[in-house]
Amino acid sequence: MDKKTKTIRAFTHGRIITPEKEIPDGTLIVAGRGIQSLGRSSDIRVPDGAEVIECTGKILTPGFIDIHLHGGGGYDFSDAEGLAGAARFHASQGTTAMLPTLCPESLPKIRTNLALLGKGYPQNTDDESPLPEIIGLHLEGPFLNPKRRGAFDAGSLLLPRSGLIREFFEASGGALRLMTLAPELDGGMALIREAKEFGIIPCLGHSDATYEQAAAAFHIGIRHATHLFNAMRGFHHRAPGCALSALLDPEISVEVVVDGHHLHEAAVEMVYRLKGRDKMILVTDAAPLSGLQSGSCMLAGQRVEIRGEKALNQEGNLAGSLLSMAEALRLSVQRAGISLVDAARMATLNPAQLLGLSDIRGRLFAGGEADLVILNESLKVDAVYIGGRQVPEFKNRAAD
Ligand SMILES: [Zn+2]
Hints:
Layout: E1 8-17, E2 22-31, E3 34-40, E4 51-54, E5 59-62, E6 64-69, E7 71-72, E8 75-76, H1 80-92, E9 95-102, H2 107-118, E10 133-134, E11 137-140, H3 164-171, E12 176-181, H4 188-197, E13 201-204, H5 211-220, E14 224-225, H6 241-248, E15 253-256, H7 265-275, E16 280-282, E17 296-299, E18 302-307, E19 310-313, H8 325-334, H9 340-347, H10 349-354, E20 372-375, E21 381-386, E22 389-390
Parallel strand pairs: 1-4, 1-5, 6-9, 9-10, 9-11, 11-12, 12-13, 13-14, 14-15, 15-16
Antiparallel strand pairs: 1-2, 2-3, 5-20, 7-8, 17-18, 18-19, 20-21, 21-22
Helix pairs in contact: 2-3, 5-6, 8-9
The structure holds zinc ion (ZN).
């Protein structure tokens, strides 16, 4: 597009959280897809002819990056249409980049799903609305500990086997980026090395590892702990378990599902005090039902339904959450006592850092992509922009 015809938008007098710094009265200029400039309103000149969006009383943050989600808005990731449907829901709630996450299923099914999601959105869509960028895939399993299977079917969990990670990586067309595994399984350590060879970030999760086993796994390359405390050996003062190992290692980042059900607020506060603002990452772990008030769906071969504001499988186990990233941010601030600036960092810069993308993502800076969330004073989404284009409102489809 010719420079002169670029749409210029000026977001004026908002509270801008970059999140490395906070500008209490800031203005941000977007030209086409990118951020042209940002700073204190008194220092930024609004270009002639710009569309002015008055943001007094509002908060501007980078677009959210969700590294763990299974669907949303009534859509799952079992086909390309579902991928786009779920993406539309999460985009409307501030997610501008994501790692669609696959559950353990039969090997042929895992390969098929990786191949499908590795190709991204359907090409032939008439719908021009901007969608979150797929910045990789997350495979949760299948090398998980049956003792800590959570809502997954024990029959779909496997012991580590050499060569499978290569197969998964190739099936995904190179898109596989995170892999959650239980390092204490026989062959678990070899699995970590194999994942690293393909540039896949190994994460500890669905694990019964002891404190010592986890420390050894961190030493050889695990970087991150998946939904901390959930489906994981917990804390005992004489046998502290992998959760404390993750909390005490300053190099390890941890995911938290802040929906009021997966973790008590005091547990979130403890994680905040131990990990600080840099190594905590907000995720949704969203079930396909997230964004809906009621209904049921299939997830990893099991029926999951909404009961008491939770997504539960037929055994009554939590099967993902009903969160969006905006809701995770709001609850972190309003219920778990995390400062807004730190919570914003946990939804933007920290996941970008884990993925090695923080030079281009998870921050608002001049020259960067205009992936932007505007929140109102109650921390609800007011507007979302992906690459400078506004995301339309999402219309739910009823789940089956
Ligand atoms: Zn999950």
